[in-house]
Amino acid sequence: MTATVRAGEAGPRIGAFFGFDGTLVRGRTTPGVRRDRTGNDDIGALRGRTMHAVTEAGEQQFVQRISGTMRPESRDLVRCHLSMGHTVVVASSATRAQIAPVARDLGVPHVVCTELEEEDGVLTGRSTTGVRCGTRKAEAVRAFARDHDVDLGRSYAYAGGPEDVAFLGSVGRPYALNPHPALRRAAGEFGWPELTLREPRSPNLRACLGTIGGLIGVNAGLATGFACGWLTGDHRLGVNVGVGLSADLGLALTGVTLNVTGEENLARARPAVFVANHQSTLDVLVLAALLRHDFTAVAKQEARLDPRMLVIEAVLDPVFIDRSDLNRAKASLDGAVRRLRDGVSILILPEGTRMPTPTLGRFKKGAFHIALQAQVPIVPIVLRNTGELAWRRSLFVNPGTVDVAVLDPSPTTGWAAEDLDSHIAEVRQRIADTLENWPGR
User: Fold this and answer.
1) Where are the beta strands (DSSP E) in 120-168?
2) H or E element at residue 174
3) What pLDDT sits at residue 439?
4) Domains and CATH numbers, the chain
5) Most buried of the four, 39, 96, 116, 167, by CB within 10 Å?
6) How, if at all, do strands 273-276 and 256-261 pair?
7) Which of 196, 124, 190, 136 is nearest to 163 (CA)?
8) What is the pLDDT of residues 303-357, one digit of tens each?
9) Where is the Phospholipid/glycerol acyltransferase domain positioned along the sequence (predicted)?
10) First vs last Cα of the chain: how many Å apart?
11) Pairing label, strands 378-383, 400-406
12) Residue-wise DSSP of 190-238
């Protein structure tokens, strides 16, 4: 489908209209909307709340639940239309508060949705636009097209609900996406193509058993490393053996393999500061398998409270940064610089926390300050799909292949502190560009 879009027309007069529930995300995420006794649209669950509270709840729901239901191939399809310069729109009966976080994450600039009515800053439980479902949704899309000079006859639409027949019939290139049986029948009658996209993965018995086996493998590898260090009297050798072996066993037993591009860059410049994007608990295991030896990590002080950090702390002796106290934070950074000068590389995840989707977060400065002070290169590592195998809130790892791209080192010689922001932006952009256009894709 993306090949078809790329081979077609470009430019903003071509629209790409995406449904929300069942299209961009799996299943239904929005509360039901009904008609009250007077025939008005009723969104009673929101009555009496402020718009600010509803918007905050939408952001929280996105992070905690909806982000894990977003279809990876829907993301690819949206990205493809954006790259062609099409006018991309999310069209749904859902409210703006529910749709906005997903649209922002996907980079979609336009939303056609059910708008809420306010009185004195408080929601009435009614809509100012009418609930944009069925024929109302189709009418709203046609109105949007008139206002934005979009040619619907040359435009695309994607939806999967039984109420989306009128919506899909509004454009010249409709696609029934993972359709409800009623929509599938209608698509057959009208001759509309059907797309079946893969769903976000849910843990099954294989994932549960594999995760347990992976934990056993990690501990067995670390125990072997401790034994090696004790027998040889070489603590660093023991750590290196333990880290590499535990990562290999953990990945093998969970059924995760690595597809690495640019592997030679892992050894081109060491010691170095390695930075990576962060979406999953699986990231740590993948990065350990890549770096393997003579490295430690830098983490925020609050991470010490995470039980998963106990093993990492015991093995790697990471540097913890206390961001609440400037003096202690500087002392910690100085400690990381000393490690680099002793030949030990540093791994830092500059987003500071796991992101709910593959979209990059803002980069913090710590990694770049450390590299500048130690005058060592920064090596970006790009992880493409760890979040698909182990979502950020999941306790289990699904088997599969993780795509990794290790980019060329960025030298820090000649950097000045006053230019640090531009260097951070440059490295972040390199990672973003790699996620957008994967090597060899």
Assistant:
1) 122-127, 156-159
2) strand 173-177
3) 85
4) 2-195 (3.40.50.1000), 206-436 (3.40.1130.10)
5) 167
6) unpaired
7) 136
8) 666 655 556 666 667 777 766 666 666 777 788 888 888 899 999 999 988 888 8
9) 272-386
10) 15
11) antiparallel
12) HT--EE-PPPPP---HHHHHHHHHHHHHHHHHHHHHHHHHHHHT-HHHH
Tell me: the pLDDT tens digits for 160-188? Answer: 999 999 999 999 999 999 999 999 999 99
Is residue 71 within 8 Å of 25, Cβ to Cβ? yes
Non-local CB neighbours of 425 within 8 Å, separated by 6+ positions: none
User: pLDDT for 112-159, tens place per residue?
Assistant: 999 988 888 888 888 888 888 899 999 999 999 999 999 999 999 999
Nearest to 193 by CA among 207, 178, 214: 178
Predicted pLDDT at 305: 62
Task: Report the distance separating Cα 13 and Cα 84, nearest Å.
Answer: 11
For range 371-398, the mean pLDDT: 90
Of 4 and 392, which is predicted with more confidence? 4
Closest alpha carbon to 23 in 120, 85, 81, 102:
102
Half-sphere exposure of 47 (CA within 13 A, CB side): 9
According to DSSP, the residues that pair with 260 across neighbouring strands are 404
Long-range Cβ contact pairs of 359-366 (< 8 A, separation 24 or more): 359/105, 360/277, 360/428, 360/431, 360/432, 360/435, 363/275, 363/424, 363/427, 363/428, 365/420, 365/424, 366/298, 366/321, 366/333
Residue 181: how many CB atoms within 10 A of its CB?
A: 8
Identity of residue 116: L
- Buried b or exposed e, range 306-317, using 16+ CB within 10 angstroms: eeebeebbebbe
Kind and range of the H or E element at 308? none
H runs (alpha helix) in 292-376: 309-316, 326-341, 366-374
How far is Cα 296 from Cα 317, in angstroms, rounded to an integer? 7
| Phi, psi (rounded to 5 degrees) for 222 | -65, -40
How far is residue 385's CA from residue 406's CA, in Å, rounded to a whole number?
Answer: 14
| Residues 135-142: contacts with CB under 8 Å, at least 24 apart | 135/166, 137/91, 137/92, 137/93, 137/112, 137/163, 137/164, 137/166, 137/167, 138/166, 138/167, 138/169, 138/170, 140/91, 140/112, 141/17, 141/89, 141/91, 141/112, 141/167, 141/170, 141/171, 142/170
Report which DSSP code applies to 59: H
Strands 110-114 and 87-95: parallel
Is the pLDDT score of 35 beyond 90? no
What's the pLDDT score for residue 126?
84
